[in-house]
Amino acid sequence: MSGEGAGYDVARIEVLEGPEAVRKRPGMWVGSTGERGLHHLVFEVVGRAVNQVLAGRGGSVDVTLTPDGGVRVSDDGPGGPFEAARETGGPGLEALLTSFCAESEPSGRYIADVAHFGGGLFVTNALSSRLTAEVRCEGLRRVQEYARGVALAPPATVGPASGSRTTIAFWPDAEIFETTRYSFALLAERFRQLAFLNRGLRMSLTDERPAGGSRAVLFRFPDGVRDFVAALDAEAGAALHPDVIGFEREDPRMAGTMEVALLWGGSREERVRSFVNSRATAQGGTHVDGFRDGVAAAVTAYARKSGLLTAADPDPGADRIGEGLTAVVSVKLERPEFLGATHGLLGNTDVRACVGEAVREYLGNWFEQQPDRAAEVVGRIVRGIHQG
Hints:
By secondary structure, the protein is an alpha+beta fold. The chain has helices at residues 3-6, 19-24, 26-30, 35-55, 93-98, 121-126, 184-197, 225-235, 286-305, 318-321, 349-369, 371-387, and strands spanning 60-65, 71-75, 128-137, 140-147, 150-151, 156-160, 165-172, 202-207, 215-219, 245-251, 256-264, 271-276, 279-280, 325-333.
């Protein structure tokens, strides 16, 4: 079919660049123009802040919902200037705000995958009616302002400063979004999860909008996913058990680290939560398969060694082992591979064997060191098999 016959030629092609390309199709970059997309703007900015803090091995990220509908995100990570970094030649903050510059961000297992689409600061800037960026580094405080993704002026030095801190404040564009009101509860839950999954990270959320006065929450969990499992068990109404089983291990075979915690409580329900680079994997994947392999192997080995299972008894099935089990399986990988576009199912084949081996070894050792608890846990599983 010719262009003439179709009534369409090259003159009709519209090429969009810069912020206008994002504003023309916002759902493509943040998922929707409703609440989901609105909150995604925050996650893009918080994602950069968290990764800067993690790259500096600690620190804090503070998020404030302002009375005029804005959001302010501040971090004390190493950060960098507005201009290109002299050490690496990578783009500075101004480039991140005006173009896609993923290669400038920290990479590998230290990345916390906070935002689902990964458009970065550029997308938040383009979809905000106003944005201000402030950088404190090298003894100076510098600021820059934007309107709908376009800089109003070059970065300006406004005075001296001590330490390093980056603060980005933005106001979502009411011309783009169906609502510009953020949910305190939704943001608080995600930030709490990030603090659980990144031990030592301090995250705060302050809401200055209520007429009766501001409210705030602060999250920091020194025991990481062990605290996460204890919280999940408590939320389920179970009495908090003192001995959450947990460990952390690096394994070069999977080019990453794993952090696993679990306990068997009094309920019959199984609660297993899994994450890759701090992002939930609702469908599980090889890290969860490896976890289940390891638990089954440790339980079976202990049951047979202790005589709870005879040679004629079958191995415990996953359904029996999972009764009353609460667990968090978190892996941080250099090169995560997902099955499907939603990133809900991890596919790295090496991860299954590595996690399975580590869980089997650690849980097996715990059974040996805690014979009374081992007899209680494994005995209940075996009784379920015999009754079934």
